[in-house]
Amino acid sequence: MTSVTQIEDEFYRQLHPVLSHPGMKLAGAVSKGLLKAAFKIDLNSDGKDDGTISPSLPELDLRTGLDDPRGRLLVFDDLERCRIPVSEVLGFVNAYVEHEKLKAIIVANETKVMEGDETYLEIKEKLIGQTLEVLPETQAAFASFLTLISDQRTRDFLEEHADVVLAVHAEGGRGNLRTLKHAMWDFEKLSRHFEKRHWDKSPSMTKALRGVLATSMERRAGKMVEADLERLVGNTFSRIFHKEASAKTTAADEIDDRYKQIDFDDIVISVGVLAGMLFRGDVDGDAIRASLDASSDFLQPEEQPLWHRAHHTFYGDDDEADIVAAQVEHAFASGSVKARGQLMHLFGIRLWFSTLGLIDRNRQQVVDEGLAYIAKLEDAGEIAEIDRSSFDRDNSFFQTRVIDETTPEYRTLADAYSEASNRVLRSKYLTIAHELIRRLPCEPDEVLLDMVVNNVRSAPYFDQPILAALPPEYFVKCVLGWPPKIQSQALNILHGRHELRHGDMLTSERAWVTRVDDLLTAALPAQRPMSRERLRAAIARKLTPLRPTSDTSAVGP
């Protein structure tokens, strides 16, 4: 509620035998004016007490004209959610208690009330006669929530591990039974896709249970966004380095500190699967099972990727660290690592190992050797073309952040790979442009979505000047040979690509568009009358405004 008048109106609605009928609730709040006209109640009597803490005292006498309220309780629920200032609400309640001699109960999350009003405790001391703390019956609630789990294997597992569930809930300190219920449901969403080989490893499933419960409760409490989850799960090293460098504590750090019994680097479920379920409602059984199978709990040590084993040397002994460091150096020297994600992880790991003294290289040598490695891959045609979607990142692969990913040395290597990938893409511009031109008459909408920023899907070429690789004469010849509708759509695509002017990314193509404009304009006299007028109008609307100095005076219909 936003004003005390709403409270007064609600009292009358509930006390009056007609207004309190369930059907009347659909009519909404009853205004004071309607009440005054219907019941002849004096709503302007001055009952205000100059000695009270709030001027917002009730103007309505609950004992006048309606059911006798004596013997009833006034219950004010969810005080912390009320948008009326706390001092004003409490003064309003106190007026009924002191002047009308009624009884009142206020139900509230006192912690949140205190966060919103520093004067609350002082006011409370004067007004509140007795405080009772309500604590959740977590065990009883858990037993009830179990009956809501439909998957039998999950229900049995949760019942067997009730102590784990209750411990995580207590450690989170949320105290909210609703978040516990939803966290159990979230675990079921994933666990119904587990297979027998997964359930047979009960300790691994227990780690998954802890991780899902904690992240679900933090998400539902509004304390964690997707970026926090990515920093939390599988990224202890990155968070430690970031915290040391910035001297700042992140939300992920706070969550990690809160759950002492959970190692968020070892919860079996990948951060990608968790994020999909918690933030987008994605539950893919194949992805869930693949996530489990790729974890260190289900992979044999010899099956684990080298970068993964290197990450986990933090938890091994020194002999193991020496062995893995030697394996990293051998793989690097042999040039056996080709995949971008694995390579970027090894770049970060070598920088880390260099700092620790595990390899006989300083950080600049690691950078120089990394740059040479990238150059060899490019010469061999083995540089990967980076996904042009907005979800591509160069600091996180396989749902795991790269060690040292924020350092200048790593950024140098990541940028060098990106540049090499861009060179690979630029070498394909002519082929890509020809393919788009070939598809345009049959799939104009798909070509538009590939080339122009839109709300449907990622446009892989929106910022790539691929058309500039085509001779403008060739493009003009194609346009003149297309049917009128396709001509219009082709020029619409050019206009859509350039009207927003995405920085300087399409600069070289803008000069190409100007040349296309000149060639099409020069071809107009040779066209038949209707085609000439239609094409002239399209050029004036779509191409001429893109010229450095536009002349739009001859825009057609």
Explained architecture:
The chain is mostly helical and 557 residues long. It folds into four domains: 4-127, no CATH class; 138-294, no CATH class; 306-422, no CATH class; 441-546. The protein contains 28 helices and four strands. The strands form two sheets. Strands 1-2 form a two-stranded parallel ribbon. Helix 24 runs parallel beside helix 26 (484-499) and helix 27 (507-523) packs antiparallel against helix 28 (529-543). The longest helix is centred in the C-terminal third of the chain and has 20 residues, at 408-427. It is extended. 27% of the residues are buried. The model is unreliable at 23-57 and 550-557 (pLDDT under 50). This is KAP NTPase domain-containing protein. Pfam families: KAP_NTPase.
* Whole-number count of domains: 4
Question: Which band does the percent of strand residues land in?
Answer: under 5%
What structural class do the secondary elements suggest? mainly alpha
In total, how many beta strands? 4
Strand order of the largest sheet: 1-2
Q: What does the oligomeric state look like here?
A: single chain
- How far apart are the first and last residues' alpha carbons, in Å? 55 Å
- In round numbers, the mean pLDDT is 82
Question: How would the global form be characterised?
Answer: extended
Percent of residues in helices comes to: 55-70%
Question: How does the major sheet shape up?
Answer: 2 strands, parallel
Low-confidence region ranges? 23-57, 550-557
In DSSP terms, counting alpha (H) and pi (I) runs of 4 or more, how many helices?
28
What is the CA-based Rg, rounded?
A: 34 Å
Organism: Sphingobium limneticum
Protein name: KAP NTPase domain-containing protein
Domain KAP NTPase: 62-188
InterPro entries: KAP_P-loop (IPR011646)
